[in-house]
Protein: Cysteine desulfurase
Organism: Microbacterium pumilum
Amino acid sequence: MDTTIPAASPLVDIRAGFPLLSAHPERVYLDSAATSQRPQAVIDAETAFIRDSYAAVHRGSSIATGDATTAFEAARETVATFVGAAPAEIVWTENATDALNVVALGMSDASLGLGGDRFALEAGDEILITEAEHHANLIPWQRLVARTGATLRWVPVDEHGEWSIDDLAAAVGSRTRVVAFAHVSNVTGSIAPVADVAAIARRAGALTVLDACQSVPHQSIDFHALGVDFAAFSSHKMLGPTGIGALWGRTELLDELPPARTGGSTITTVTMEKTEFLPAPQRFEAGTQPVSQAVGFAAAADFLTELGHDAILEHEERMTELLVDAVVSTPGVTLVGPRPGRRRASLASFIVDGVHAHDVGQFLDDRGITVRTGHHCAQPLHRRLGVAATARASAYVYTTADDVEQLRLALAEVRAFFGADR
């Protein structure tokens, strides 16, 4: 198989812009689904803000505060544009996990009569998820049904870890209030038919909550066009800083959802008896804000926009093809998720016969290849697959064919090293 990146690819020399990759050319980084590397352009943008414009935002009337607030809100506008949204539809959160919790906790407060009647749940209501979900899109809903008496249901996966739209449609009923699911599975790489799910939920009068962590960094996204009601995504998976994520929601929903966290900067009026909250997004952003992180988040969005979604998709499809081939062509190594030839995101989880995933990861790490091992915060899915853990290799814009070839060569040695080929 041809393992070269076409010379015409705009991504062929991109690694030079990533300090860690430049500093360690011997290292193969195949763990971008966990966290991506940052380009110098993102580091420079955040550093320049800290050096030249750092101050509190939305507080006080000083020039410094005004300059910082302008940069902070400009970052919101940039990230909103990146996902086809209006700035008021983007709420800064700690990460995507926090964003999903904001929705679930808001619904919990609504169920206690603290506003947002359309979000209130009661006994007999149902929340529907899938068996493939990351814990961040499972545990908040478990807590919500425990508080409200509602029921948590899930769409089962098959032996490959995939669920079907037919099974999901059959599971949606008259008492379904929320359908929460991942756009892309962080374990299998399966890509959900988001618009179809949203349409099914809408017909039933249910809200859709999308975990978009593994899709926003890799493909052109327009949440309005997808038809969902809420979506969560994270900066650090798309070349940006840690410590910040985003919740997208339709304006009319965000303005009614009770804020999960309360305090300074979220209010219009406070008396000793009651509080009135600002419209979204400020109603959700209590306390000191991640200002420099937001600037870095926006710089990452600009960086990816400049690369172009078409170029990113073309490159990642090629890397995905190579990853899958590296796994399935190695005796004793089993691919998890969609079969070869079927569409998947740019990751490949796999099982090595006779060798625990953690040992596989250590073996690869000793050879300079960074992958993820474990249950990837998806224990129910791994339990359904009959394994405690898998190894996962994931590609991004800076991944090269040589990176994948080194993975292929190392995988061919794993079973022999541990004596599992006897």
Confidence is low (pLDDT under 50) at residues 1-8. DSSP finds 14 helices and 15 strands in the chain. The CA atoms of residues 89 and 249 lie 5 Å apart.
